[in-house]
Task: structure prediction
Amino acid sequence: MEPFLSSLKVSKVLNVTEYFNPIDCRSLGVIRTTLATMGKGEILEVHGNRFQHREITAWTQKFKHPIVKVEDIDGLVKIFIEKGGLK
Result:
């Protein structure tokens, strides 16, 4: 494991598995709202499923929030997002 990832300091944890809906993916709105309350460089740990992982990855790339680590344990995916942004 890389030294940076072993010392990853998570600021908030968010479980979006209950928001799973392949039509509207409401979990993205919850993630966006949570990131808006965080400072640049803080880490948000998001728990979701594999479908949400694909959607979240595309969304974070579009809005320049880097994913610094992903853990997939039997379909439960933990995504570690660094608050970045377009500015």
Observations:
- DSSP finds three helices and four strands in the chain.
